[in-house]
Specification:
This protein is mainly alpha-helical. The chain is about 55% helix and about 5% strand. Strands 1-2-3 form a three-stranded antiparallel beta sheet, with no helix packed on it. The protein is rod-shaped.
Length: about 170
């Protein structure tokens, strides 16, 4: 930025009531350029706009070349750090998507486990009921038939002479 006025000032002379050629109060701004990093200036509120007068005056003294070189180095480091931050943000986004996928899969597995647990309880109940029915049938069928079979075997042994009471 170059000064459009030969007027120079310093911060001690700025009382906040300076006016530009438009008659408006000027605003203090800070340069973010490589040539004048952090250097403060006064400017028209509409500086570089169609209805502005382009009033501009530096408040701070010109930056020395060594400081400018250091500012360039710091700017390069800042840009590198910003790049790393963006890369980390992308990694975090990928990890977050992965975490969400795992969480969704976990939720689905929890539901499936609950369904399988309920199915297991139902099947266990059914098996117990069937075992009870089988046990009841065995008791009904085996009890009388067992005794009937013993009587038949005794009768057969008696008929063929294998069974001799009293021996």
């Amino acid at each position: 930025m170059s000064s459009s006025s030969s007027y120079t000032t310093n911060l001690s002379q700025y009382d906040g009531d300076e006016r530009c050629r438009c008659g408006r109060r000027v605003v203090m701004q800070t340069s973010l350029t490589v040539k004048n990093p952090g250097r403060r200036f006064l400017g028209c509120r509409n500086y570089k706009k169609e209805n502005g007068c382009n009033f501009f005056v530096w408040i701070d003294p010109e930056t020395c070349p060594r400081a400018l070189e250091y500012a360039k180095i710091m700017q390069a480091k800042k840009e590198e750090l910003e790049k790393q931050v963006e890369e980390f943000k992308m990694v975090i986004e990928r990890l977050e998507r992965g975490r969400q996928m795992v969480e969704e899969e976990n939720d689905a597995l929890v539901v499936k486990l609950a369904d399988l647990t309920e199915m297991n309880v139902n099947l266990t109940t059914t098996i117990e009921a069937l075992n009870a029915q089988i046990g009841a049938r065995k008791t009904r069928e085996i009890g009388p038939s067992y005794f009937r079979n013993i009587i038949v075997v005794m009768f057969i042994y008696d008929s063929i002479g294998y069974y001799k009471p009293g021996f």
